[in-house]
Amino acid sequence: MSTTRKKVLWAFFLLVAFVQLFPLIWLLNFSIVDANAFFSSKILLWPEVPKWHNYVNAWVDGKFPKYFLNSLIVTGSTIVLTVVMSISLAYAFTRMHWKWRSFFYTVILLGIMIPIHATLLPNFAIFKALGLTDSYWGLILPYTAVSVPLSTFILTGFMRSIPSAMEESAVMDGASIYRIVFQIILPLTMPAVVTVAVTTFLTCWNEFIMAATFISKDSLKTLPFSVMNFAGLYSSDYGSQFAVMVLTSVPAIVIYAMFNEKITKGVTAGAVKG
Q: Which of 56, 69, 129, 169 has its CA 20 to 30 A from that of 271?
């Protein structure tokens, strides 16, 4: 490749990177400006004196620690349930031979096409009757249900690329089905499991509509509600809202940056070899 083409290619990549990162830069910028500056015509506005007090407001008045813990409980529980159910289903679809396997695999994958908010009203009616509103389970169950189809698809594709010789040896040694799945298969599918965990995390972490519908108790509210604490009837504290969004996005950015390589490996391995 010629030097000119390399320069053009690098310029293109840098432009794409800037476009991708600009929303984050804009978010950081407006989280340290005064509320009156939001009505300026400038795209970026660096203040002479940064308003770090916006982050104090976000932490204290936004009830960030309490909502962060609730989000952590809901998201963590959803990830655990999704991983356990998805790897069990993937094993059943790839290693076990039974009559309705293809039919049920297709039914599970149909769930990928159903948006989570399309189930809002039916879920609310069911959970209201069962007394699951205003509880962690009111969020964990629908989040898990919407995450399992895609997770099963990813793990099934990855599991098909794993030779079954190790499992056959374990069966001959008398290992139970649970030991085979969770002590032999689970470590081998770790790249795909990380992919499933991160995608589930990103799906649940910032979800607001389901949470706003099912949760009314302040003690159970999740992080997106912190933003609403600064929204008034006639005016809003935009600086504090942006500060909340920055704090909320930090865990997602850190987790994705840490596991980016495994996510790519988990997706591509299933796509290429499955």
A: 169
Rg of the Cα atoms in the chain: 23
Among candidates 155, 244, 168, which has minimal Cα distance to 197? 155
Alpha helices by DSSP H, listed for 131-237, are 137-159, 165-172, 177-179, 186-188, 190-205, 209-214, 224-228
Whether the CB-CB separation of 252 and 260 falls below 8 Å is answered with no
Nearest to 31 by CA among 2, 51, 14, 48: 51
Integer Cα distance of 17 and 20 in angstroms: 5
Residue 115: both structure tokens together: 């948006």
Tell me the domains of the chain and their CATH numbers: 54-273 (1.10.3720.10)
**Which amino acid would we find at residue 126?**
I
Supply the pLDDT for residue 148.
93
Report the interhelical angle of 238-273 vs 3-30 (nearest 10°). 140
Which class for 250: exposed (0-12), middle (13-18), buried (19 or more C-beta within 10 A)? exposed
> Phi/psi at 172 (nearest 5 deg)?
-65, -30
Instruction: Report d(CA 262, CA 193) in Å as an integer.
Output: 9
**260 C-beta neighbours (distance < 10 Å), count:** 12
What proportion of the chain, given as a percentage, has pLDDT over 70?
92
